[in-house]
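R.M. (postdoc): so does anyone remember the format we settled on? I'll just put the structure tokens first.
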């Protein structure tokens, strides 16, 4: 009986490791296409043409709302070609008053039933559609953001090239406030270079990041928004893929995002992301794989594999524990890929895991002493994804939206000067 159980454990752990290894090879292979940035035409070669409605969704953001508005009014783009709208969504502070004082067009929304950014955006889009003034695209931001002055020029370029949905580069406005903000920043820097950029080059779909993106207004009218779960950005990305559309990338259109300061804040935010991710996976994974195999659609396939990514994180955590046990107790029944790779190859895998991230940060020109220290604690941040993912998936049916408080006051002038 014991022998049969050991064989069963060996077979299960073998299948798990092989699946995780194949998925890892898939993501790693794609990431290689982001190592070298291609030379593209500059934004200045595309005269300003597109009209933008810039939308900032805000819930009790009186501390940071002036700075995002000021950065939007500092765009190197004709002022008559864009307007700044602020949704004061279920606010109980002075967000609306301050936003209006800084020149934004403010819409106040009160709805205690349909809470969250996805609902607020859908409400605002309907108002934009019915306005007498017409726009070519909407661009979405969070209230804690700061936006680079060339953002609209870069978006105008991508829209003029024929792209319908474009995601900008998500940077950090407070990368060294704490070990958590540094870990977040490293994660986003890596994602920009080895997830988003290579997919753009390969003709796959990049992922919407919740902020700093624009959508062609006619496309939005055609397929509708309808993204109202806890991760509306992920939901709309998957909806686009099912409709044969994809997200392009603008590496030079930078949006600076405020990262959570504490592990508790980070835990709650990432748990919400995983709740939304699990919700999207339950609804979109099957139709995406179906579209991928029936139509040979690589965009749908890649999006479906991405929905599998959190499960892969959990399995990696389990595999790591199994490897530790197997190292201490060699007679344990757990299978590890070390059994099939020569020891020299195994060491290359280990070394690659340690140096691949810092190498990417180096070519992104983000490397300094603080980042080196950040990489020391970064594995801890990565390991916390395992319990967060499990917790998020177990509570995927909890649709309650929780607000992340933003308090980091810094202007775009200060940030760009630094």
């Amino acid at each position: 009986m014991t022998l049969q159980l050991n064989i069963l454990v060996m077979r299960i752990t073998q299948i798990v490791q092989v699946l995780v290894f194949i998925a890892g090879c898939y993501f790693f292979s794609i990431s290689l296409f982001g190592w070298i940035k291609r030379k593209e035409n500059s934004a200045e070669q595309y005269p300003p043409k597109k009209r933008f409605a810039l939308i900032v969704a805000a819930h009790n953001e009186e501390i940071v709302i002036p700075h995002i508005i000021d950065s939007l009014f500092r765009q190197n783009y004709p002022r008559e070609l864009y307007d700044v709208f602020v949704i004061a969504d279920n606010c109980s502070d002075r967000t609306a008053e301050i936003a209006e004082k800084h020149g934004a067009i403010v819409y106040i929304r009160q709805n205690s039933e349909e809470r969250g950014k996805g609902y607020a955006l859908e409400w605002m889009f309907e108002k934009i559609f019915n306005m007498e003034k017409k726009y070519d695209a909407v661009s979405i931001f969070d209230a804690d953001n700061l936006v680079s002055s060339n953002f609209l020029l870069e978006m105008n370029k991508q829209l003029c090239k024929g792209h319908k949905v474009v995601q900008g580069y998500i940077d950090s406005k407070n990368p060294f406030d704490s070990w958590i903000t540094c870990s977040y920043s490293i994660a986003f820097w890596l994602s920009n270079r080895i997830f988003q950029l290579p997919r753009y080059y390969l003709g796959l779909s990049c992922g919407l990041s919740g902020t700093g993106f624009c959508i062609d207004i006619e496309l939005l009218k055609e397929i509708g928004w309808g993204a109202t779960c806890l991760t509306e950005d992920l939901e709309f990305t998957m909806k686009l893929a099912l409709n044969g559309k994809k997200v392009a990338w603008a590496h030079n259109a930078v949006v600076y995002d405020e990262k959570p300061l504490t592990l508790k804040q980070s835990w709650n935010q990432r748990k919400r992301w995983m709740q939304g991710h699990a919700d999207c996976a339950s609804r979109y994974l099957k139709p995406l794989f179906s579209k991928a195999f029936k139509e040979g659609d690589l965009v749908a396939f890649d999006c479906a594999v991405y929905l599998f990514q959190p499960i892969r994180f959990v399995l990696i955590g389990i595999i790591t524990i199994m490897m530790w046990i197997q190292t201490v107790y060699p007679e344990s029944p757990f299978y590890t890929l070390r059994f099939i790779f020569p020891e020299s190859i195994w060491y290359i895998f280990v070394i690659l895991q340690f140096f691949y991230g810092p190498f990417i940060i180096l070519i992104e020109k983000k490397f300094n002493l603080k980042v080196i220290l950040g990489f020391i604690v970064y594995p801890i941040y990565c390991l916390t994804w395992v319990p967060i993912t499990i917790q998020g998936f177990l509570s995927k049916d909890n649709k309650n939206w929780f607000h992340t408080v933003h308090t980091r006051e810094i202007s775009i002038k200060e940030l760009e000067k630094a």
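R.M.: ...and that's the designed sequence above, right after the tokens. Also worth knowing: The radius of gyration is 22 Å. The domain at 35-307+341-404 is CATH 3.90.550.10 (Spore Coat Polysaccharide Biosynthesis Protein SpsA; Chain A).
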